[in-house]
Design brief:
The protein is of the alpha/beta class. It is 40% helix and 15% strand. The strands form four sheets. The chain has a seven-stranded parallel β-sheet, with helices on both faces. A two-stranded parallel ribbon has the order 7-10. Strands 8-13 form a two-stranded parallel sheet. The protein is globular and about 60 Å long. The site of NADP nicotinamide-adenine-dinucleotide phosphate has 25 residues, from helix 1 and strand 5. Ligand F7E binds next to helix 4 and helix 7.
Length: 329
């Protein structure tokens, strides 16, 4: 039985990936950090089996700032595949906590790669790289060869993590790869990312619990895909014989305003009556527009997106309406 080790198991992607790997028969070990309140909401449906001695799902405390814990975990678990998804992943917040973001998101990756060397294991390593690395884009659409121009402390940290992953591949022969994923969303997306903020608030407005939605830059353009499909791409990359880097995207771009319009349209409300902009949600430097080419992923690992923009908005909104006992008519 293959063993996988996941950082970020309590996050959006970690929860979907843990489900996928369990369904494929893996033994799954997730690292979570200690929190004063439960941070396991996204995995509670699989974590309930933890008491079962036959469970293939295991949780371990650890933190990406704690190299000795990472070393110990890898030496004890000896995983075949490591999916490194843990990060301070919020771009706006990275301007408030730049040093912490660098420590967790950049150096955390180095600590984990070094722990693989210290444990002397032949584990494959997946780095959760990001389209934010393209920032002020040098060409459109962006592909694996497009130069990076990061626009936030988060994106700078991800550029470091990208290169240190590649460096450990070249220097030490590790099977270490970068999945350069464009924005991907789901009902499990954190509520302070724009997609979930919109569908969550539109559902509350429809339920009569709220009457406004405050947003930042409505003209930002993103290539939004569906998270459960993106974790499948991660797994496929890791099943290849040779390590390589891949872009995962939908090849469709939309503005934040279009996301807003679609969500309000679905519930039959006029968005302009509810939406205002607030400077608090603008970034000191923005990534204005992103659009990815998934050609290499399609050709080499047979991956293609199925859920596109309108269906994504609908999936997320239906889920959030249901929380209030509402449905789309
Ligand atoms: P997410 O929901 O924000 O999850 C981040 C995970 O990292 C959570 O499990 C979080 O734990 C954990 N974490 C944060 N700080 C940590 C620390 N100091 N030590 C250990 N764990 C820590 O992110 P996601 O959307 O699932 O994204 C997964 C990865 O892909 C991230 O690296 C992100 O930067 C990257 N990425 C995401 C996208 C996207 O559109 N979603 C696109 C490209 C790349 P808590 O639950 O305790 O907070
Ligand atoms: O912002 C604009 C904002 O925070 C998208 C992370 O998963 O994807 C994510 O980063 C756009 C930006 O995602 C609000 O200015 C307008 O242009 O949902 P977001 P992100 O910054 O693209 C990448 C690929 C990652 O790697 C990251 O980890 O929407 N926007 N108004 C807003 N954004 C937020 N959060 N809140 C607003 O009110």
């Amino acid at each position: 039985m293959k063993k996988a080790f996941l950082t970020g198991v309590t996050g959006q992607d970690g929860s979907y990936l843990a489900e996928l790997l369990l369904a494929k028969g893996y033994e799954v070990h997730g690292m979570m950090r200690r929190s004063s309140s439960f941070n396991t909401k996204r995995i509670s449906h699989i974590a309930h089996s933890l008491q079962d001695p036959a469970s293939r799902f295991h949780l371990h405390y650890g933190d990406l700032t704690d190299g000795s814990a990472l070393n110990r975990l890898l030496k004890t678990i000896k995983p075949d595949e490591i999916y490194h998804l843990g990060a301070q992943s919020h771009v706006r917040v990275s301007f408030d906590v730049p040093e912490y973001t660098g420590d967790v998101t950049a150096l955390g990756t180095l600590r984990l790669l070094d722990a693989i060397r210290d444990a002397n294991i032949a584990a494959k390593f997946y780095q959760a790289s990001s389209s934010e690395m393209y920032g002020l884009v040098k060409e459109t659409p962006q592909n694996e060869e497009t130069p990076f121009y990061p626009r936030s402390p988060y994106a700078c940290a991800k550029v470091y993590a990208y290169w240190i992953t590649k460096n450990y591949r070249e220097a030490y022969g590790l099977f270490a790869i970068n999945g350069i994923l464009f924005n991907h969303e789901s009902p499990r997306r954190g509520e302070n990312f724009v997609s979930k903020k919109i569908t969550h608030t539109v559902a509350r407005i429809k339920a009569g619990l709220e009457n406004k939605l405050l947003l930042g830059n409505l003209q930002a353009v993103r290539d939004w895909g569906y998270a459960p499909e993106y974790v499948e791409a991660m797994w496929r990359m890791m099943q290849q014989d040779n390590p390589d880097d891949y872009v995962v995207a939908t090849g469709e771009a939309h503005t934040v305003q279009e996301f807003v319009e679609e969500a309000f349209r679905l519930v039959g409300l006029n968005w302009e009556q509810y939406v205002s902009t607030d400077p608090r949600y603008y970034r000191p430097s923005e990534t204005p527009t992103l659009l990815g080419s998934y050609k290499k992923a399609k050709d080499k690992i047979g991956w293609e997106p199925k859920v596109k923009f309108k269906e994504l908005v609908k999936i997320m909104l239906e889920h959030d309406l249901k929380e209030h006992g509402l449905t789309l008519s």
